[in-house]
Task: structure prediction
Amino acid sequence: MITELKLLDLNAGKFIDEKVSEITDAVGDGIAINALSGGVDSSVVTMLGHRALGKKLRTVFIQNGLMREGEPDMVAGMFRKLGVEIEIIDARSEFLDALKGITDPEMKREAITQTFYKKVFGRIVRESRANYLLQGTILTDVDETVAGIKRQHNVFAQLGIDPQETFGYQIIEPLIQLRKDSVRAVGKALGLPEEIFARIPFPGPALASRIIGEVTEEKLTVVRKATSVVEKLLCESDAFQYMAILHDDRVTGMREGKRDFGRQIEVRCWNSIDARTATPTKLPFEMLEKLAGDIINEVPGVVSVTYNITSKPPSTIEAV
Amino acid sequence: MITELKLLDLNAGKFIDEKVSEITDAVGDGIAINALSGGVDSSVVTMLGHRALGKKLRTVFIQNGLMREGEPDMVAGMFRKLGVEIEIIDARSEFLDALKGITDPEMKREAITQTFYKKVFGRIVRESRANYLLQGTILTDVDETVAGIKRQHNVFAQLGIDPQETFGYQIIEPLIQLRKDSVRAVGKALGLPEEIFARIPFPGPALASRIIGEVTEEKLTVVRKATSVVEKLLCESDAFQYMAILHDDRVTGMREGKRDFGRQIEVRCWNSIDARTATPTKLPFEMLEKLAGDIINEVPGVVSVTYNITSKPPSTIEAV
Result:
């Protein structure tokens, strides 16, 4: 049982000092590695690791082809400004090959997990001779994995997998007692720029979580464009998280006066403190119309846009 | 080219007198038949035909299994109060059999059309020895068929089909110059109760238009329940049309703390004058939440509800 460290009880400065010295002690003369996704959790872990280990930490950003527009360069650029060098690894074809023909959500997550850990990141770790892996697991991931809601890809221990035996390295999870709100507070205290510590959450399986049915390059292009539109319009909304989901279902629409059996994008925008529960943001109707109009105009093939109006539970934050 | 008779230029009393005498003259000593769906168009045609022909008109309501909750009895009951006897024909298994395995929207519509005309209604017409068929085709149906947007099932002439040769009867279309607003005005002038003449439009393929993918009895039950919830909550909204659409895509949700790979219902609520163009109704967010909550609670298996925020065009009113 992990004890929650609530935002109210959190002294971010003290927390950082403790975690930095824990990481320093744990790694000792070893080498650590971590994968940065650009989300707030892995960004905070990267900074904690960098403070503790400096050049003894190698941080890689795996370009899995499931990322948002311009993401790898944007993230690496921001960290470079903070004095942290990020290595970008191009693994797009490996992920796309692994996802081919898979429609079941659990199998998609599993394919991404296996490709990430066993294939791409596993190979990098083995070649790096690192013996410690820093991971951005937070308490909500643990809860949801235990409850069987989603199989989070980064919670080996909870799944009864021995990472030492399976992957050949030990895992350090400095954020395991925190929920999202506390992680943001720590990020702020670490001096991360607002673009990072206040970044909306983004799931491990990235855009694959936002494609219903098989993940293909063509569908990734569509959902990536729709995501750009949604993030651009909602970045000032104060919402907890917002996203575009590409449906597999086709719906009837019209283009130039002719029938067009087209695609549908579902927009979700959540109010939430910690992702455990969430409600749809009461966006002004003008914003909903702007979202629909811009997506229709900017994303080829889309004839229909919906807004999700369900709470979590029974919905989940992501669709897949 | 059909000349439009606009609401502004419509004298409903005069229109009714003209159409009644046209129908009387056309049918002469013959027998006419018509199919009543319960929508405003076929209801108005039934009343015009009844006035013109009395017992020489036979009106059937074909229960195709794709109807809304309690629909056949409700419609027949309302007409009985107006002195018009409606015959209910149970053809549920014929329609379900015809729809089996079909996922393409055009093929679904075609299966329903063929089952309706060639099989069920064709058989009834032949057995009845009627030689005239009254049809509720309106100008919007003609436009959309010509434009190739949707293949309306009731516009044979526009599709180059000779109904005399193909089905053995002649078609009388008294509403062909009108759009929906004028049809309502005529319905009102005919003394139809508000429940009928002000009824929201309902498509020919009925709930099959609101199921993405294959139409099955189980999916009909789900979409029928969701439709009841939506119609109950939105009947006072002044919207032009509102509906529940059952998606084929499954989305991740939670029930009793466990993952539940469930169904999604899409709600559409349209503002429109004549269905040619339409915009989503700006429902208060409290109503959107109520819709989502009631659907989740009352319709088994649903974990997610969306609201369509696209205009027509490029959307269409119905999803299929």
Summary: Confidence is low (pLDDT under 50) at residues 151-155 of chain A. The CA atoms of residues 253 and 260 of chain A lie 5 Å apart. DSSP finds eleven helices and nine strands in chain A. Chain A touches chain B through 51 residues (CB under 8 Å).
